[in-house]
Amino acid sequence: MSAPAGRGVTEHTTSSARHTTGYLACGRDDGTPMIFVHGWPELSLSWRHQLPCFAGLGFRAVAPDLRGYGRSSVYSDHASYALEHVVQDMLELLDALGQDKAVWVGHDWGSPVVWSLASHHPERCYAVANLCVPYLAQGFTPANLVPLVDRRVYPEAEFPSGQWDYQLFYLESFDKARRTFEANPRNTVKALFRKGNPKGKGTPSRTAGVRKAGGWFGGAGEAPDVPLDTDVLTEADLKAYADSLQRNGFFGPDSYYMNPDRNAAYARRATNSGRIDLPVLFLHGEYDYTCETVSSRLAEPMRQDCRNLAEVVIRSGHWMAQEKPIEVNAALAKWLATAVPSR
Q1: pTM value?
Q2: What is the pLDDT of residue 343?
Q3: CA-CA-CA-CA torsion for 88, 90, 93, 99, nearest 10 degrees?
Q4: Which of 126, 164, 187, 298 is the most exposed place for a label (fewest CB within 10 A)?
């Protein structure tokens, strides 16, 4: 790994007959596991601000690279990136840690993974927390997201799919999307990892026009060369992300978007009809305009299906754990102290 992940953080690998997971860990071996699950197109490194903090509070803080990323196994077919398989990877990781349960924390695509752990395997969870992506018991799929679009911001005639248009672009033009990101991974990371902008409130997310523009970056064949946003990443962080994405490519990361039907079928097999009774924390990003949960109806299903829910609004964009680590860590720590005091 090119960038230091923080104080006392060590690299590990666990392998089974079906999968290999690379992960970072920090804290005492006998501490309660607190497992941080990253999203697209990140790495275990995205939790670099959280691992030492929660290790210092007595947890065994762990952050895996999801399949397709970093030092974990890479697969060449879309179906291998369905949530059911990623959840099994996480259960194998928990087994390798020698533990029955963990506190799970997810962000972006890591959130549906953590929600799935809570809804399918509650016996393996003390509690779950998620950043930005709320729970949808029927599955995090375009069919379930579009009905919740805020039509004040996205008039149906102009934005039929709202901010979720980009997910349909993957389904229709996967190779083009992948090639655009892979053309210059360093520029891709710089263009994507930007702090939240309060001025964007109430205006359409750029993800709403991806199909009309013919691609993510206005139809250009690669990401523009923009300045690094040092409020989110250091130069060393950028290098770590770019090197990993250069090595593994975007087929795996982008394939997470290619399984809506499989993921919806998996959601239908949840225990308790998808209701989650565990302690749950959800962190809203006030300036996350794709996963806009503050003003829209996007979080309403979560409030119906999570019976022990706490919510905190963080004045942040989408890359919350990296942009506002102090606020995120404080919200997590306060919630843990009240939701799972025994741990």
Answers
A1: 0.97
A2: 74
A3: -100
A4: 187
